[in-house]
DNA sequence: AAGAACCTCAACCGCGAGTTC
DNA sequence: CGAACTCGCGGTTGAGGTTCT
């Protein structure tokens, strides 16, 4: 059993260099209790660390890496076993909102839990929420993240996102205010919702979703329909705390189920504005929409639907979500485009809202207030935009990478998806599109929106107008820009 | 009852950062 | 100063179990 020292020290590098013949004598796969006992015994005697020496001294035919992992994830005495408590689940959500996929950092905040555990938790149960079109980040978490980042922003200018993230972790600013946890009247609603959702039998979720709300799949399996209808009531439970109690004034004024798009900021999508989560491709608010055709996704190709339930559209908006996605896509002008994208969750719905408004334009008072709120939302996001700007300059970032894949995924290939989207747009814009295709109407709505100076701030984002429209045109598969 | 589909989670892999020589 | 080594992290895989059809 005992391996030569030279072999031992080479194991990792050998593996790294692809010479598997050298490492094949090291055992892989599940650990046996005997191996566990050996490792535990070794660590008790020698302490943690120097993992490559474990094999040498203990006779384990496992590489140091494997030993470290086994110890860290299963044998450590301080490990907490069993399911996550609701409090832990909420903590994970909050930490993810702040940190993104920084599992190790999250694990450091959750005593007894491992990064692997948290990662698995996120990748499975949270993904389930997304599939269901339910939010991952409750609005209070979004707000909390934003506030803490704004505080940090006020304390020190952030040269780039990385340092910003580090500061968050290393400084007190990262500490999640206790008040948020103590605000259980508020959070309990989430908690009462969250664990249930997290334990939803996966196959009972037959929801697809749109941009604005959860809606049943076009043809949900019959056995799903009952659970769907039961499930549909859940978001309503969140309505009250979502905006009425825990949001600042602009957000208070409407519940997520008001028909006013103007409340749709990132928080409304369950995406904390400016959070690191936004930098992760798997949590871009603009990831490929899921739908009946896309319920099962490869690992990390999340549907990112979580925003939906915080949004209050009365119609599904998959097209807009696709557009939203695409706005991140253009490689050129990427920083600003993504800056745009980071805030665009609100913007694009606002665009549709504007389009819708053009068709109705009956309630001037409401328009004024919504325009006001749109500006608020825009300002709100533009702040985040500034914060995120530098971070998104890295072309290798996941969000950058996601764009191309998203583009390819959502560029209509077969007629069906395009048809669906067209019908969808038509449904949004009403029956007034006799002379324009729905796509054109959507573009014109966007044009109108941009032209009204909703984003005419001196931030450069307005320069993205051509990009946005081009991208939309590309998405729609029509050369709408020609007549533009 | 059997196969398909799906879910969970332990473990592996590649990479990068830090440290040592 | 640079190569070698070690460690830790995040992404991914696949085996095994469960549920559905």
Secondary structure blueprint with pairings:
Layout: H1 5-17, H2 20-23, H3 33-46, H4 52-58, H5 64-75, H6 86-99, H7 103-109, H8 115-131, H9 139-155, H10 161-170, H11 178-182, H12 184-198, E1 207-209, E2 214-216, H13 222-231, H14 234-245, H15 249-252, H16 318-327, H17 334-360, H18 364-389, H19 398-410, H20 415-429, H21 438-451, H22 465-476
Antiparallel strand pairs: 1-2
The chain binds a DNA duplex (21 and 21 nucleotides) through helix 1, helix 5 and helix 8.
Instruction: Kindly report the spatial arrangement of strands forming the biggest sheet.
Output: 1-2
Uncertain runs are 1-24, 156-270, 278-484
Q: What is the distance, rounded to the nearest whole angstrom, between the alpha carbons of the first and last residues?
A: 74 Å
Q: DSSP strand (E) fraction?
A: under 5%
- How many independent structural domains? 2
Average pLDDT figure? 49
Task: Return the string of H and E elements.
Answer: HHHHHHHHHHHHEEHHHHHHHHHH
Structural class: mainly alpha
**DSSP, total strands:** 2
Oligomer: single chain
Q: Using only CA atoms, what is the Rg?
A: 24 Å
What's the main sheet like?
Answer: 2 strands, antiparallel
